[in-house]
Specification:
Length: 66
């Protein structure tokens, strides 16, 4: 995925969430506390899925943003 360049024409909500998107999508950390919390949330979610999904199962993830 190509990394978008921020623009002053973006809605305010996009501008506020851009740093979080950089961490979650591109792995660029600007806030280590948030990065740790995101990684922990991701780990716990994947553990939960692995505990119930059968081998080879597929998961449909719809609107899973914060």
């Amino acid at each position: 995925m190509r990394r978008p360049q921020p623009s002053s024409t973006w809605p305010e909500s996009w501008q506020r969430s851009y740093a979080f998107d950089l961490n979650e999508v591109f792995g660029e950390v600007s806030d280590t506390g948030y990065a740790y919390a995101y990684a922990e949330r991701h780990r716990r979610t994947m553990d939960a899925v692995r505990s119930v999904a059968q081998p080879g199962a597929r998961v449909l993830d719809i609107a899973a943003g914060n």
